[in-house]
Amino acid sequence: MTNRENTLRTIRFEHPDHIPVAFHVTEAVFYNYDPHEVEDVLASHQIIAGANRMRWDLVSAKRAAEEQITEFYDAFGVRWRGIIDGIRGAVTEHPLADLSKVADYRFPAHPLFDAKSERAHVTALKEQGHFVKAGLEHGHTFLRLTDLCGYTNTLLAMADEDENLISLIAKLEEYNMAFVQHWSKCGYDMLSFPEDLGMQVGPMISPDLFRQYIKPSYQRLMKPARDSGAIIHMHSDGDIRTLADDLIDGGVDILNLQDLVNGIDWIRDRYAGKKCIELDIDRQKITVFGTTADIDALIREEVEKLSTPDGGLMMIYGWYPGTPIANIRALMDALERYMFYWN
Question: Which among 54, 170, 179, 310 has the fewest CB atoms less than 10 Å away?
Answer without folding.
Answer: 170
